[in-house]
Structures are given as C-alpha cells and as structure tokens.
Design a protein that fits this description.
379 residues, alpha/beta, Aspartate Aminotransferase, domain 2, 7-stranded mixed β-sheet, 3-stranded antiparallel β-sheet, 12 strands, 41% helix, globular, metal ion binding, PyrdxlP-dep_Trfase
Length: 379
C-alpha cells in the first residue's frame, strides 16, 4: 500500500537541508547568545543573520522581527501585547469568525478582561466585506486581526485593501500569515501590515519555530518576564538551532516559491480532474479566485467526514477535517459554519493540502482512492 501525506497545512516534513543546518547548533556550537565570550558571540551571529534574512523576506527591518515558538505564540503576543498597550485609548477590537483558534481564543480571553470584540462575517467564499469592516470601526477601535490565508479553505483576504482601510482610520492591523508565508510575496509596508505572525513548521522547519513582525513604533507590552532577549520584547534564551533552521527554511521557501505555487496548482487541478472523470459529486469549499493552491477543501455529499478520513487513512492517505488544533473534535468546522451554516456541507468536508515531498503520482493515487471510497460509501 502506498502512503501519501496530504496534510501539509497541519504540519510539514523538515527539509533535509534544514536538518543539516541545525546539527552544528545542537552539538558543537552550544553557547548562549547573550554571553559575551566567543561561544556566545558565535551563536549570536546566527540570530543576527536569521533576523536580517527573515526581515528582508517581508520587506521589514531586522529590529522589527521577534523570534517565537510558532504561530500561536506570535498571535497571542501580537494581540495581547498591543491591546494591553492601547487599552487607555479604547477597548474595541475587530476580528473575523474564521480565524485560527490561536487568534479566536486570544480574543475570547480579552473579552474576559473587559474588551469588546466585533467578529466580522464572511460570504460563501470565505471573504469578509470591506463595507462591513468600515461600518464596524468605532472611535474606540484600537486593533484589528484578520488572517491572510485561511488554514482550512485556502481563501486569501484582500489584505492590501483591508490594510488601507485600517491605516486610514488609525487602527493597528495584525494578520496571521501562517499559511501564506513562504508561498506568496509579502511586503508589510506595501500592504500596510503592522504585525504579522508566521510559523516555521509550515515551511519545512521544525515545530517550535516562528516569528512575529512588529512595525517600529507600534505600542507593545511584552507578555513574558525574565531576561532582555529580543530587545526586551520576548524573554527567554533563544532557540538557536531552531532559528538557524527557520532561516534556512525561509531561504529555501523563497527560492522555490514560484515553482511550488505552480506545482501545487497542478496538483489541485489534477485531483478535481480525476474526480470529474470518476463521476463523483463534490463541492469545493472556498474561493476559486482568491485562494492559495496548496489547500483543497471539498465536501462529498452523503459522506460523513470522520468515516471518510478513517477510510482514507486505511488506504494510506493522510488528510484532515480542517485545523489540526481541533482534530479531536467532532464539532463542525467553525470556518465552514461561518460560510454555509451548519448543514450537511460542513459535515462532509475534507481538506487535502500539498507540500514538500509530494509528486504527481501521489496526487493521482490519492484522487483515485478517494473516488473509490466515496463511491463505496454512497452506495
């Protein structure tokens, strides 16, 4: 039986070149980057080089990059850090119903602390309305967090237009770019982004690596207490090996970005082409125009998600029902519920996501086996 991993939106395999770059900093170069002796100075350069490269990858300056443990910490740090710093100016915040739980649960916590949160709706393509955004802005609105690309459907928001609206109204803009970073060109200045979260394990770096971009001058209160690492914004000895890995993964992602984008688009089209040929009925969830190609979320009418996923696993195919953070839950996807309500479409959806290590043979196998399973389950 062939094994095919199509759950890269949950996590990606670590690239062999990334592993190779890490090893010296797990063995030979073990110094603390805050130490002033040669052992510390040697690894301090690793942080400096990584910070410069990652800043360049999004059009930022090196002092605007904070290394974190990943997307969840970056989201928490950005939202609570800014909200805490600006609560004297207002306590109204804006986000959407389709954010990752790292964002949604952070806003839920802020509501317990006395903040008021507006959750923007989305249409059936998973896109917010700029008009609704404008209407919900108030004099006491201090921060908006709207994700770049949805992790369940691949839908991409009009970040530039959103950034312009928020900039015109003097509102700080945070975006969770975990699914977008490394696959699309991002210039934070051009897009008017004030804070941006990214995670290493979505771009073939180890889990536990990531960064937060904070525009110079943005009011920000650190949420951890200890040493003066990361310019006093994130206490704790830096994960040098992880940061070196993140640096290498970011460089590889940028070098291969256009090729990967085109390849994933071919994978997505091939899966749908095979299903069409096999005569099975499916509906694609998300926007066909404003989307990233590495995520394909579909509903197969008459097939329960959990049953399909188990059968796919038995056929050696790894897919998911959406966010890995809620994989143990039998509740319908909050993203699809926001798009369509809680009907059958939300209970028969599966997410296939492509990445490093996949080839066209994998995609064809997965598509054919999926068709066989769907036919069997709908008899």
């Amino acid at each position: 039986m062939k094994n095919v991993y199509l759950d890269h939106a949950a996590t990606s395999p670590v690239h062999p070149e990334v592993v190779e770059e890490m090893i010296p900093y797990l063995t030979e170069h073990f110094g603390n980057p805050s130490s002033i002796h040669q052992f510390g100075r040697r690894v301090r350069k690793v942080l400096d080089d990584a910070r410069a490269a990652i800043a360049e990858s999004i059009g930022a300056s090196r002092n605007e990059i904070i290394f974190t443990s990943g997307g969840t910490e970056s989201d928490n740090l950005a939202i609570i850090g800014v909200a805490s710093a600006l609560e004297g100016n207002g306590k109204h915040l804006i986000t959407t119903h389709i954010e990752h739980h790292a964002v949604l649960h952070t806003f839920h916590e802020l509501e317990k602390r006395g903040f008021e949160v507006t959750y923007l709706s989305v249409d059936e393509n998973g896109l917010i309305s700029l008009e609704e955004l404008k209407q919900e802005i108030r004099n006491d609105t201090i921060l908006a967090s709207i994700m770049f690309c949805n992790n369940e459907t691949g839908t991409v928001q009009d970040i530039k237009a959103i950034g312009n609206v928020l900039k015109e109204n003097g509102i700080i803009f945070h975006t969770d770019a975990v699914q977008a970073y490394g696959l699309v060109s991002i210039d934070v200045k051009e897009l008017s982004i004030d804070l941006l979260s990214a995670s290493g394990h979505k771009i073939n770096s180890p889990k536990g690596t990531g960064f937060l971009y904070v525009k110079e001058g943005i009011p920000f209160i650190p949420q951890g207490f200890g040493g003066e690492q990361e310019r006093k914004r994130r206490a704790g000895t830096e994960n040098v090996a992880g940061i070196r890995a993140l640096h290498k993964a970011a460089v590889l992602a940028e070098a291969e970005r256009k090729d990967r984008y085109a390849q994933y688009q071919k994978y997505k089209e091939k899966m749908k082409e095979i299903w069409d040929q096999e005569g099975i009925f499916y509906v694609e969830n998300g926007s066909e125009k404003s989307t990233l190609p590495h995520i394909l979320n579909v509903s197969f009418s008459g097939v329960k998600t959990e049953v399909l996923l188990v059968n796919l696993d038995l056929a050696g195919i790894a897919a998911s029902s959406g966010s890995a953070c809620t994989a143990g839950s039998h509740e319908p996807s909050h993203v699809l519920a926001a798009m369509f309500g809680e009907g059958e479409r939300t209970k028969s959806s599966v997410r296939f996501s492509f990445g490093y290590g996949n080839n066209m043979e994998d995609i064809e196998y997965a598509a054919i086996e999926t068709a066989k399973i769907v036919k069997r389950l709908t008899k």
